[in-house]
Structure formats: structure tokens, C-alpha cells
Amino acid sequence: MRRSLGLILCLSMATVVAACGDDQHGGDGGTGTGGAGATSSSGAGPGSGGSTPEPPAHEGGGPAAGNPDGSCAVPDEAQAVDTSSPKTVIGDGTPESCTSEAVVSAVAAGGIITFDCGPEPITITLEETAKIFNDTGPEIVIDGGGLVTLSGGGKRRILYMNTCDEAQVWTTPNCDNQDHPRLTVQNLTFLGGNSTNDDDEGGGAIFAQGGRLKVVNSRFFNNTCDPTGPDLGGAGIRAFMQYNGLPLYVVNSTFGGAEGYGNECANGGGISSIGVSWTVINSLFSHNRALGNGGNPAMAGTPGGGSGGAIYNDGDTMTLTLCGTRIERNEVNAHGSAIFFVSNDHSGNIVIDRSVITNNIGGSWYPTYPQISNHDDTPIMVTASTIE
């Protein structure tokens, strides 16, 4: 893994220290044969949840947010945040008032942020990346109301949070495991984020290291990051160091969703992480691509990468939970056309409930189920789902 902050992380965070070196699943795993398709029934959702309020419909072009067939209950902590009393309202009711400068300033100030850009959908193209300051929370919410698209213009990452970046203010002596900022993005579209000129980390639309991130009723279209590399990734989201190993929630959201809207990176066309647990509920991943070639560690003569068409998870103890989620028509060159999941110490697990994984393209090393690359001793619990 190539990392601009690798020294800080390897020195300060024991939980992901194994991931700071080469992964040990090795290229040999790529010669495995795929498992049979699976259809299973029974099972419950990802925990108890209250009633889910109806999210606002996204206006403007592009696929809707979320899997229309997803019906899993959403836990209380994964629900959208009440933004009726915002700290900052971007705009004065006119499109012209909703500028890049206004967005960047509001995000830097933290708190609850909403938009008043008029009744029509609007795309705000950022002239610089919006960056979270770690001392402006602890709760930071960006709510687009189903009307706002934040665009990187194909030139820059859209949103950045890093508790271990001194420029964003260190707030605790344990930046690798702190409970803030707690960032929620909801009712937003992230379009054309591109981190290839920022660093070699990934996270074309969102980079989130430390604190906690939650994504609700949001869409990720045409985001990109470096096209090659053994362990970078996450055209939509790249995540590290969620507080106390608690899950990063993705709820009723879409990554790609139709031809021409997909996201692309070396690995993890949709989302990517090291040492992070994810709970993905009622969401859709389709038409995303892992562009790299040669896997991780990179095979001789290759630049590496090409794994996790939709999802790329690397680390030690972690859980990937899917409920009510559809993963289809994603594509890879190496492994895990739908999901790449490598727990280096073999302590991680996958839970798939009421979900569909189908028609993902390419790759090898499918020891348990088709389209999912994992160590053959990784527990995978499948209920009421189709994998074929």
C-alpha cells in the first residue's frame, strides 16, 4: 500500500498495522475456482431499527438513490439526521448564491449545513476541496435536500476529513481512534470527484479517516481516483480508522446505478477501506470498475490493483454487512468483481441478507461464492439472498 500518511498510521494504529505491509492473501489465491451460485432464505436485518422516514426524492438527472427493492429496517443511528435547525444555510434562495466558496466555508465551519438555492436542482462545481476541521463538530451534517449536486469538475476530490492531518487541527492525542468529528452526508449527489492529483490514497468523492462517517440517501456518479496501484481505492468513498471499529453506514444510496454513471479507481470502484467495518443498507452498486491490474501484492511486471468492482475491504478484524442491497454489472481485472474482502489475520466476516449479487464481470479467486474474493476460511452468512 502506498500511503502519504503511512508512517503516522503504522506508528499510531495497531489495529491496521498488518495492512501497512503487503497483504498475505497473495497472487496464488487468484487461481482458485468460483463457488456455486447461492439462493438462501430466512434471517433478520442488521439490527433493530425504527421506522424509516421517506427520504426526499433526488431531482435532476441520474439514477435514484438506493435500491428500490431494498426493504431492510434502518437502525436508529443509521437514520438521516434532523437538519431543521442548521448552523449554516448555503444560499439566499437563488442559484447564484450557492457558490464553491460558500460550500467550502460552510464545511470548514462545521455544524449542520443545509442549502437554499431555489426550487430547482443545482450543481455546485467546487474550485477547491471542501475540508472538515476536526474542532468544529462534534456533529457535522451536510444535507442537500435532494436538490444539490456537489461536483469536483473531474479535477479534484470533493470532501476530505482526516483526524490525523495536523492542518485540519489535532483534537486528541489519539487521532487514530477518536469519536469525532461525526460526519453525515445526506440527500446529496457527488459527481466528478477526482483524487488523482491530490495524493495516492483514493477517495475520489470522499476521503474519511478517523471519527465516523455516515452516508444516507446519496448518489455517487462518475467519480475517479488513481487507475493503478495495489491497495489504493474507493472512487466514491475511501475510509480508515472509524472510532472503536464501529461500522460506517451507507443507507439508501447509489454508486453508479446505470451505464454512463459508474465510478472508477484502481480498486473499489464504489467504496474502499482498510480496517473498517461497513453496514450497507438498501443501496445499489452497479457499473463501477476496478481499473488496476496485477492484484495486491502486485504481480511482477504489473502496476497492481484491479480488485473489488463495487467494494474493496482490506484489514484485520472487520465485518461487511449487506442488507437489502443490489450489486450488479460491476467489473474488475483481478479479483472480486462484486466484493474483495481480505482479513489478513482471518478474523473478519461477511453478512449478506436480502440482497442480490449478480452479473458482475471478470476476475478470479472465488473460493466460496461467485463474484466475492475472500480467504476460504472467512465466515460468510447468507440469508434470503441471491448470489449468481
Attribute tags:
388 residues; mainly beta; 18-stranded mixed β-sheet; 2 helices; globular; disordered N terminus; signal; Lipoprotein
What does this structure look like?
It is globular, with a radius of gyration of 19 Å. 4% of the residues lie in helices and 30% in strands. Residues 1-37 and 40-44 have low confidence and may be disordered. It has 388 residues and is mainly beta. The chain has two helices and 29 strands. Helix 2 (100-109) links the parallel strand 2 and strand 3 (112-115). The strands form three sheets. It has an 18-stranded mixed beta sheet that branches. Residues 29-96 are annotated as: Disordered. This is Lipoprotein. Residues 1-18 form the signal peptide. Keywords: Signal.
Runs in which pLDDT lies below 50 for 5 or more consecutive residues are 1-37, 40-44
Total strands: the figure is 29
What's the domain count? Answer: 1
Describe the main β-sheet briefly. 18 strands, mixed
Rough outline: globular
Helix content: under 10%
Report the end-to-end length measured between terminal Cα atoms: 31 Å
In short:
Helix content is 4%, strand content 30%. It is built from 2 helices and 29 strands. Residues 29-96 are annotated as: Disordered.
Topology:
Elements lengths: L5 H7 L25 E2 L48 E3 L9 H10 L2 E4 L6 E4 L4 E2 L7 E13 L7 E4 L19 E10 L14 E4 L2 E5 L2 E3 L15 E4 L7 E4 L2 E3 L7 E2 L5 E4 L3 E4 L2 E3 L2 E2 L20 E5 L3 E5 L2 E3 L2 E2 L6 E5 L5 E5 L2 E3 L13 E2 L6 E4 L2 E2 L1
Parallel strand pairs: 2-3, 3-6, 4-6, 5-7, 6-8, 7-9, 8-10, 8-11, 9-12, 10-13, 11-14, 12-16, 13-17, 14-18, 15-19, 16-20, 17-21, 18-22, 19-23, 20-24, 21-25, 22-26, 24-27, 25-28, 26-29
Antiparallel strand pairs: 1-29
